[in-house]
Write a structure and sequence with these properties.
The complex is a heterodimer of chains A (about 260) and B (about 230).
Chain A: H1 2-13, E1 30-34, E2 42-48, E3 51-62, E4 73-78, H2 95-110, E5 120-122, E6 126-138, H3 143-157, E7 159-164, E8 169-179, E9 187-194, E10 197-200, H4 204-209, E11 212-218, E12 224-230, H5 237-257
Helix pairs in contact in A: 2-3
Chain B: E1 20-24, E2 32-38, E3 41-52, E4 65-72, H1 87-100, E5 112-122, H2 127-141, E6 151-158, E7 161-164, H3 168-171, E8 177-185, E9 190-194, H4 202-231
Parallel strand pairs in B: 4-5
Antiparallel strand pairs in B: 1-2, 2-3, 3-5, 6-7, 6-8, 8-9
Helix pairs in contact in B: 1-2, 2-4
Amino acid sequence: MIATKDYVTTLLGKDIRSDNRKLDEYRKPITIETNISPKSEGSAKVTIGETIVIAGIKMDVGEPFPDTLDKGNLMVNAELLPLSNPDFESGPPDVYSIELARVIDRGVRESECIDMKKLCIKKGEKVWNVFIDLYPINDSGNLFDAAGLAALAALKDAKFPEYDEKEGKVIYGTKTKKNLPLTKLPISCTLVKIGDKIIVDPNTEEEKSMDARLTVATIDNNELCALQKGGNSSLTIEEIKKMVEIAIEKGKELRKLL
Amino acid sequence: MKEKIEKRLDGRKQNELREMDAKVGVVKRADGSAMFRIGKTQAIAAVYGPRALHPTFMRDPEKGILRCNYNMISFSTGERVRPGPSRRSKEISLVTENALSPVLDLKEFPNTVIDVFIELIQADAGTRCAGITAAAMALADAGLIMKDLVSAVSVGKVGKNIVVDLDKEEEDFEDGATDIPIAMTPRDGKITLLQMDGEISKEELLKAIELGKEACLKIYELQKKALKEKYI
């Protein structure tokens, strides 16, 4: 571990990354494939280099929360599958899977990506629940950005299932042609600081060597909609400014892929 | 006695498998991995180990242990599956271990564990069999010495027909369906998994197992092909 950090840091001192990328360069290829699991309402598989994340949307009808009687409900869940990384263990969701789910949740919720009012069937009684479930299949670094893209691609792919209002039942397996009411698309870009260098899209070695991490979610008009700092070192305001600027630029590139 | 053969719901022949697809090496970080798809059922398996076993009290100085974990991802079925282990997934994990153990020589790896993780990306009946088939390829991909591969398929009775590889529609057939998941080591034809729910006569059961053996050999050919594709 210390050897990894030494190696990554020494190389970065010469502006070289362990996989030969530029400091602000994402791994290639970045691919997005939708409808990978037709039993879901919408699904997608995203790869960034060797990292693979799949996302699926399930919907059902339930009651609204007391403080949002005329809005649908959004639930984001992530499971860090032990299949995807030798360091992940089986068991109840650990703090890292909760963090991943909550960062994606904030991006989608705060950007008002989904028009939640249009998910209301009957005010105060019946609304659509939208579940976004995220699963890494191979974690070679930067699950945040892959998961963010996968969530959006799956949301874009999703169609409402048939709903039998009399019976109050969702008829799974019969999809309507109606898409989810999407407005803006939040794109997250994750940067890490190692020593005094800032890089985007960290791979596994870089994640293990990082001092601090910042995930920045941006929307179409280049405004920010969510932030999450990670790692146990601090960032200067200058560094944050630089990171946000890079995230806005990278956000534009990633948005084109959706 | 002349047997009347009714048409299968999706028009397949009695002994006809759904369309299949297999790929080895799909999870780069794992020591071994594979994907197996049969019809709309798709499983991914990854192998880690032999590696240090935790908790330590489970360590066996005589031999390593095989630990399987079967899981359906939440959006793989009609109604959302609640994440986390269930009674069903725990039992399937156990029978999967039993199905795969006979081909491994665990005495080679005392005090360690071989972890096999199976994720069902899409579920349309026959998921435990798809999981076992994928896991066998993943174990081979991990470079473990194996006596044989393991191939698995479900057979059963739908209405009056004895058929192989039931899909969800057949499993839910209203006049009754009997589902018999089997796994075998293809070279010597021995059975390593056998379960059943439903009603069936002894003769029908034996016929179903025969059909299953035949089907497993077809799956075995595909497994070998997928493994060769990665290495040759």
